[in-house]
């Protein structure tokens, strides 16, 4: 059996995993992921009991119970590269024996729901709407570093996407990953729109925002808004759902992202005071996870 070297699975002196600083016994099977470390405290304010709180860099974690369910809420910061760290470390906590550095014989499946904020790309997803990423389009490249990604990607959707967007950006090849179907069914009621979410590898240029720097393809957002594949339209932009769905599917975990729209990219409006509108979504996810 392969023993994972100290430089690959990095365990701190206190027995916790390198970035998250969590120990295996501190992780619940149900995990709520959020971008903002402060949002962790908001989610945990609904908990009936709290067993641990750990902070390290942008990774803030609280494990507790909500109506009898043991739940971990963890922040991942911004970007798909952070998701690579968080997913690998959560999976290691669940599925690698830290004393022998070997993969445990029995696989433990995690349920991972990201609750985020997002920019809306269609008139039917105005500011305040909740949108689940039934499919995620990755403008990032994290997934390409892992083997056998074809088994979790929707290659036909990718082909249609590159054709309709007349993809011009060299060095980048957008990929498409569906969220876990059973989890989408579990979390998404009539109060949440099922959408197609782009995880962009930046907030400004990669989401078509122009401040001082001109864009390489100024028509890209127009093409994104007009895209239609078998009746599916692209609904929103955020920055993590693709690598979350992709890595979780490769590892065998159930994962999805659901976001509250805070920027209306069609009407060009913005809700900077969005924290109140996120609480309804947090309550819904805690009830259904
Ligand atoms: O509010 P969070 O969860 O961070 O989500 C969104 O907000 C951040 C950008 O402002 C990105 O992380 C994006 O995915
Ligand atoms: O427009 C937005 C708003 C929140 N998060 C994003 O990534 N984009």
From TrEMBL:
Enzyme nomenclature, EC number: 2.4.2.3
Gene3D superfamilies: Nucleoside phosphorylase domain (3.40.50.1580)
A Pfam family recorded for this sequence: PNP_UDP_1
Protein name: Uridine phosphorylase
InterPro entries (UniProt xref): Nucleoside_phosphorylase_d, Nucleoside_phosphorylase_sf
Domain called Nucleoside phosphorylase: residue spans: 30-266
Catalysed reactions, as listed in the record: uridine + phosphate = alpha-D-ribose 1-phosphate + uracil
């Amino acid at each position: 059996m392969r023993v994972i070297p100290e430089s690959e699975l990095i365990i701190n002196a206190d027995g916790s995993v390198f970035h998250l600083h969590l120990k295996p016994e501190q992780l619940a099977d149900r995990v709520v992921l959020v971008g903002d470390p402060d949002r962790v405290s908001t989610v945990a304010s609904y908990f009936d009991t709290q067993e641990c709180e750990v902070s390290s860099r942008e990774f803030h974690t609280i494990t507790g119970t909500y109506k009898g369910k043991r739940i971990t809420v963890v922040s991942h910061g911004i970007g798909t590269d952070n998701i690579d760290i968080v997913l690998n470390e959560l999976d290691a906590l669940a599925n690698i024996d830290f004393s022998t550095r070997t993969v445990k014989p029995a696989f433990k499946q995690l349920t991972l729901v990201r609750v985020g904020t997002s920019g809306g790309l269609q008139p039917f997803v105005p500011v305040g709407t909740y949108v689940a990423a039934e499919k995620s389009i990755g403008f990032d490249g994290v997934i390409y570093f892992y083997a056998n990604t074809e088994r979790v990607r929707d290659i036909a959707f990718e082909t249609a996407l590159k054709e309709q967007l007349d993809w011009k950006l060299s060095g980048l090849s957008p990929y498409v990953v569906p969220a876990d179907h059973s989890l989408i069914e579990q979390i998404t009621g009539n109060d949440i729109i099922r959408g197609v979410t782009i995880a962009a590898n930046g907030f400004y240029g990669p989401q078509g925002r122009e401040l001082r720097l001109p864009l390489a393809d100024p028509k890209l957002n127009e093409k994104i808004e007009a895209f239609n594949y078998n009746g599916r339209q692209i609904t929103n932009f955020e920055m993590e759902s693709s690598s979350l769905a992709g890595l979780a599917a490769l590892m065998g975990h159930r994962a999805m992202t659901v976001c509250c729209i805070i920027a209306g990219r069609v009407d060009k409006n913005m809700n900077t005071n969005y924290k109140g509108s996120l609480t309804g979504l947090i309550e819904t996810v805690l009830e259904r996870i």
